[in-house]
């Protein structure tokens, strides 16, 4: 191997006779291998080659807890062993696992995983609270759902999303607890949360069942049905007209059909042609009268 590291150049010498000083020439260390090529690079031993993503981890987490019993200690122990070697809490992995469990309607597992996550002090967000509330309602644990909603409502009173009120009102509507339903709706009005169309419809049905027509009229007057709404068609947000009844005749009444549009266009075109012909005829008559070609009787 030939190395040119300590090479001396005369450019480094100072010129004593003159005032100028030569600039040093920079030489990079040149290393030439015997095989005439770059040095071979070997993979590092400490660097892992297999990269496991969050999706595969979430699938493993679902498979890990799916075959267990409903004993709290067994499920919590499996979850602790799953995250034992993690440097940070895998919050994204747990959220994706919860989404997968929600698609499979594993409500008990969702409750256990969220409560375990809350005990670790992680993931206390509105989305996690709503997933837990929905899982408790779907699992038939109404009392725990009411306690959870009361805790969330007292803690996040002014910033509570409308979806929580909608879920509780729909729960009380299905159960038949109309008094609690009215209480939640009163809390919504006090906080200035505008109800959704589904909430207004459920309240209207209850007022009609209980024969409270005066309150029903006030409700319809205060919250009239929207005339326009946004719908997503092929990924695009489109503003569409809302009809009170879903009948075909009323739905097509506001917009003419294709045949009607073609007929209207043909009528409009015929009228334009007639107007153009009459105007041209009048112009010719005036020209002939001006030139004296017409004979008056």
Approximate shape:
elongated
In whole angstroms, the N-to-C terminal distance is 126 Å
Low-confidence stretches: 9-17, 246-269, 289-297
Mind describing the biggest β-sheet? 2 strands, antiparallel
Radius of gyration: 40 Å
Number of helices: 12
What is the SS-derived class? Answer: mainly alpha
Strand order in space, largest sheet: 1-2
Order of helices and strands: HHHHHHHHHHEEHH
Portion in beta strands: under 5%
DSSP helix fraction: 55-70%
Task: Give the beta-strand count.
Answer: 2
Mean pLDDT: 75
Describe the model.
- The protein has 297 residues and is mainly α.
- 56% of the residues lie in helices and 4% in strands.
- The chain has helices at residues 54-66, 72-82, 91-103, 107-119, 126-138, 142-155, 162-175, 178-191, 197-209, 213-222, 248-251, 258-291; strands spanning 228-233, 236-241.
- It has a two-stranded antiparallel ribbon.
- α4 runs antiparallel to α5 (126-138) and α7 (162-175) packs antiparallel against α8.
- The radius of gyration is 40 Å and the shape is elongated.
- The N and C termini lie far apart (126 Å).
